Amino acid sequence: MSQQVRVRFAPSPTGYLHVGGARTALFNWLYARKTGGKFILRIEDTDVERSTQEAVDGLLRDMKWLGLTWDEGPEVDGPHGPYFQSQRLEIYKKYAEKLLQNGSAYPCFCSEEELEAKRQKAEEEHRSLHYDGTCRNLGKEEVEKRIAAGEPYVVRVRVPDKDYVLNDLVRGRVEWKSETLGDFIILRSSGMPVYNFCVVVDDADMQISHVVRAEEHLTNTHRQLIIYEALGITPPTFAHASLILGEDKTKLSKRHGATSVGQYALDGFLPEAMINFLALLGWNEGNDREIYSVEELKECFTLERISKSPGVFDHAKLTWMNGQHLRALSVENLLPMVEPVLKKEMPDEPRLQNPEILRKLVELIQIKMNKLNDAVEVAKSFLNASQPENEEAAAMISTDKSKDLFAALAEEFASCEWVREGYNAAIKAAGKTAGAKGKELFMPIRVKITGTCHGPDLVGILDVLGREEVLKRLRN
RNA sequence: GCCCCUUUCGUCUAGUGGCCCAGGACACAGCCCUUUCAAGGCUGCGACAGGGGUUCGAAUCCCCUAAGGGGCGCCA
């Protein structure tokens, strides 16, 4: 009962944070926040070839954007650092040495070429592809002699002849038979440790209590269990969530379109919506609820309710959900998010510089948006005066009646009080003069002013455009 | 080839032996609201992978098959 929850997200910086990784991070983070535990961020950069600083930077940036703050890790450090695997080499060596000492690991001098040849032969003969154990029982003197002679070697774990059982929080009982695994490498000939070994050493060293990760690691757990045992350390609790799939039901990847969290940020999605969507992809509370705030998620998240079956990433549903969160925002909160988007796309638009107009604009278009970026198109649709977009629209403003209407309306607008009640009355009066009402009254006005048959509330548009601009467009 | 995991509407899912001829959400269609488009409301469409058992009764338990995924690396 005394054990504190310590969970971690351990990405390798070989690319951007993708939605699958983000969900894994989220589950860990949620669990830590729910239980009052610690969330640790560890960078698994032992693959020097593929790891880059840009990827690390991007990872941290996207994690922050999502609001997935870490208690220990890069930038904040902590009592169990360093949090970059590339800086922990001494620790791995120490643990490997321990395994070599107690006999649960041994040096292996087989070359990569030899192993490849053996693997191929095994494949042809339909035998298991495992290491055949050539160096498993070399004499102590021979080992020392070959090492002294400078012969390169790797370190392998001596896999015990026994079955292993994992009691996974989401999968239940998973069992591996002894013969399904050959002695595997934990230290490369370069001295660099291998993933499965680093994970165990780090998780043990950082006192991780729960390992929450994706299903692709499920079978790795077999090896990791063996290493824990060899080290004499009690393994943490495991929870393996399933994978996120693309629309074609294969593992989500770049060719499925946007998969990086950074891209979603750029596309105008809200972090809160992203969190909501990701949380519900492979987890639910057991009821019909769809919309959650981050705070609410922190309250009710449980590892046990993570689902076993893989899920397809549904972009349409994410967009809908983003719209839900967007519309739930107060204008005060929405405005600072929309403002930069608008100003970036319309740097020369003077009305955006006026705080009062800007506020009215945001209020007007909020209901039309599903993403922050939608603001641009909606705003442009009426901010810029334009010709009728199609024949239907052109026909709407070319009738005699509509021309009478515009003339009458211009007159009314010129003198009416420029507030909502004022234009409403003016429109009504002009309609009476021209003999138009209902759709016949409003549609021509809309088209005359904006060029299109649809868009936000007409009165709201007048409000944003202002008397002068409206008159100019009416008289044009 | 071997090992492991998974399988309810197109998609995300509820469902842990009777409340289920299966509920919700997205998408789609229709209607309502409305000066338009949205938003919102209502309605509709639509699934227990297949086959065997167990049981009075099975989406739910067992077995087999199929399909999908993951792993079997000196990648992570």
Describe this structure in words.
With 476 residues, the protein is mainly α. Among the domains are: 97-187, Glutamyl-tRNA Synthetase, domain 3 (Alpha-Beta Complex), CATH 3.90.800; 338-475, Arc Repressor Mutant, subunit A (Orthogonal Bundle). Helices cover 48% and strands 9% of the residues. It is built from 20 helices and eleven strands. α9 (271-280) crosses α11 (315-328), α16 (400-415) packs antiparallel against α17 and α16 (400-415) runs antiparallel to α20 (467-475). The longest helix has 17 residues, at 19-35. The relative contact order is 0.09. The structure holds one RNA strand of 76 nucleotides.
Q: What is the CATH class designation of the domain at 338-475? A: Mainly Alpha
CATH A-level architecture of the domain at 338-475: Orthogonal Bundle
**What name does the CATH topology of the domain at 338-475 carry?**
Arc Repressor Mutant, subunit A
Q: Terminal Cα separation, in Å?
A: 78 Å
User: Helices and strands: which structural class?
Assistant: mainly alpha
Helix content: 40-55%
Give the helix tally. 20
Mean pLDDT equals 88
Radius of gyration using CA atoms only: 32 Å
Number of DSSP-assigned strands: 11
Q: Main sheet: which strands, in order across? A: 3-4-7
**Largest beta-sheet characterization:** 3 strands, antiparallel
Beta-strand percentage? 5-15%
Identify the overall geometry. elongated
Q: Point out poorly predicted stretches.
A: none
Describe the secondary structure blueprint for this structure.
Layout: E1 6-9, H1 19-35, E2 38-41, H2 53-66, H3 89-101, E3 105-108, H4 112-124, H5 140-148, E4 154-157, E5 164-168, E6 172-176, E7 185-187, H6 195-205, E8 210-214, H7 220-231, E9 237-241, E10 244-245, H8 261-266, H9 271-280, H10 294-300, E11 311-312, H11 315-328, H12 331-345, H13 355-365, H14 374-383, H15 391-396, H16 400-415, H17 420-434, H18 439-450, H19 458-465, H20 467-475
Parallel strand pairs: 1-2, 8-9, 10-11
Antiparallel strand pairs: 3-4, 4-7, 5-6
This protein binds one RNA strand of 76 nucleotides through helix 4, strand 6, helix 6, strand 11 and helix 11.
